[in-house]
Design goal:
By secondary structure, the protein is an all-alpha fold. 77% of the residues lie in helices and 0% in strands.
């Protein structure tokens, strides 16, 4: 190998190692998430107990203190559980009384969580009652986030109109507060002439540097997520991955459940060839969204899950083709070897039997491979048609049904029975000669073999390992051992000699 290639190889190995280290770091944090959640709930319980103490005092002078506690509790719950967040946001509204500022703050927070739960009409009603001039910068972010979420939810009805409304909203928020990560991100997406990608990335990096030392890490997580999205748009996948990992780790540590980083990482994992990791991440995202009622995430998660499934189907189809071609090559080599040994043995009877076995199983193997590839194509076509016609939910319903695999497995067993009995037509009658009268075998009415017969048939062709038999027949190893013991007990030959005798039938 030439020396000039060594630095390139070293760089590739270093990048791969760094990538795996990032994922391993993330997965260690995922394992620790129950502990982070327990600590989060403990802090929330402490705040709730303090709130209950104030409520028991029933002191009107403590009303503002109770409002601030409700504010803090619901703000923390927003990233953890939307139902709890909504409950405490409503409590804020009750405590607001006639205070116009408190009312605007409460309705902004309530509208934001309602958008997360896809309660669009209620959110729209509250947003229309808010005076944004009464809000400080922190609550302005809540208000504009809710308005943007609402426009996104309504966008399908009049796409172009709502897109223009979103652009105006981003500009309006930017003029009031240009330091929030989400505001910077929206400007970069909707007003690239004002906020080019490079400028937005620079501003987000400044926020990340500032927020890294903060106790409240939510803005830090969001900044990493938005800069990752901008790198992804720019085609810089590796940088996007690193920022997404950092955002996902921070989400886990602050017990955020309505996250986007882990979801986006699943797409990148799939593009990197790590299908198992991609499926694990998207399933975790879906589980948290369902458990903590982040309804607004469902459609996006389902569409991403469908995209992953389609890519997996395509990869599986490609893999099956490679296996098919490899199988043909191996079978061709086996055919050559078999032919060579046939000539070497000079036995007409052996030549006939080997040729019959070879032709039968080769024919069935090729037919099954071609048939399976065609069915994969048909199934993929059905997925596309269903996706267009009935949407992601129908696709997931189809994927949950085991009927395709069950019918294919039943057909595979039927083909095996036909091939085996074609090669060993006297197998059942010869087998009955070594079995007790009460344990005689008969074929099923359709000519297929029973499970007991299939186990013995596999032993006859040299597959005696119980684990392999269990895998081929799609049953547990314990069941195979139980069936085999019963067969030994029902035979006329000693148990130790049973398998050897079966292999000669």
């Amino acid at each position: 190998m030439k020396r000039e290639f060594l630095p390139i190889i070293f760089l590739l190995v270093t990048l791969l190692s760094s990538c795996n280290d990032s994922y391993r770091r993330l997965e260690r944090e995922l394992d620790l998430s129950p502990q982070y959640d327990e600590a989060f709930l403990h802090r929330q319980d402490s705040l709730r107990r303090l709130l209950e103490t104030l409520e028991l005092q029933n002191d009107e002078d403590k009303r503002n203190e109770r409002f601030l506690l409700e504010y803090e509790i619901q703000e923390r719950y927003f990233v953890f559980n939307t139902d709890s967040c909504k409950h405490h946001a409503r409590k804020m509204l009750e405590l607001s009384g006639d205070d116009p500022r408190a009312l605007s703050i409460s309705k902004a927070h309530l509208a934001r969580v309602l958008c997360r739960q896809d309660s669009v009409e209620q959110a729209q009603s509250y947003l229309g009652q808010i005076n944004p001039d009464l809000l400080d910068k922190k609550d302005l972010e809540v208000y504009y986030t809710a308005r943007y979420s609402l426009l996104s939810a309504l966008e399908d009805k009049h796409k172009e109109d709502y897109r223009l409304a979103k652009k105006r909203l981003a500009q309006e928020w930017w003029q009031k507060d240009s330091l929030k990560a989400y505001s910077i991100y929206l400007m970069a997406r909707l007003h690239p002439e004002t906020m080019p990608l490079e400028k937005a990335q620079k501003r987000l990096k400044a926020i990340i540097a500032k927020e890294s030392a903060s106790i409240e890490k939510n803005e830090y997580a969001k900044s990493n997520y938005y800069i990752a999205r901008l790198h992804y748009i720019a085609g810089e996948q590796e940088k996007a991955r690193d920022y997404l990992v950092e955002s996902a780790i921070t989400d886990i540590r602050i017990s955020a459940k309505g996250y986007g980083a882990l979801m986006e990482l699943s797409r990148i994992c799939l593009m990197e060839g790590s299908a198992k990791r991609a499926v694990s991440y998207i399933q975790r995202t879906k589980q948290d969204a369902l458990q903590y009622n982040y309804t607004s995430r469902y459609n996006y998660i389902n569409s991403l899950e469908l995209e992953i499934l389609e890519l997996l189907v395509a990869q599986e189809r490609s893999r099956k083709r490679i296996l098919y071609i490899t199988g043909l090559i191996i079978l061709s080599l086996l055919a050559v070897l078999v032919t060579f040994f046939i000539k070497l043995l000079h036995s007409h009877r052996k030549v006939e039997e080997v040729s019959r076995i070879k032709d039968s199983f080769l024919s069935i193997y090729m037919e099954r491979c071609v048939d399976y590839l065609n069915k994969v194509d048909e199934y993929r076509s059905q997925l596309r048609q269903t996706a267009k016609k009935d949407g992601p939910e129908a696709i997931l319903a189809m994927l949950r049904k085991p009927l395709f695999a069950d019918s294919e497995f039943a057909k595979l067993l039927k083909d095996f029975d036909t091939a085996f009995l074609g090669i060993f037509p006297d197998f059942v009658s010869n087998l009955n000669m070594i079995m007790r009268p009460e344990a005689q075998f008969r074929l099923n009415t359709d000519g297929s073999m029973s499970t007991h017969l299939r186990i013995l048939a596999l032993i006859r062709i040299g597959i005696a390992d119980r684990r392999k038999i269990a895998k081929i027949l799609n049953m547990s190893v314990t069941t195979v051992y139980s069936y085999h013991t019963h067969l030994q007990q029902s035979s006329l030959v000693p148990k130790k000699e049973f398998d050897k005798v079966v292999m000669t039938l």
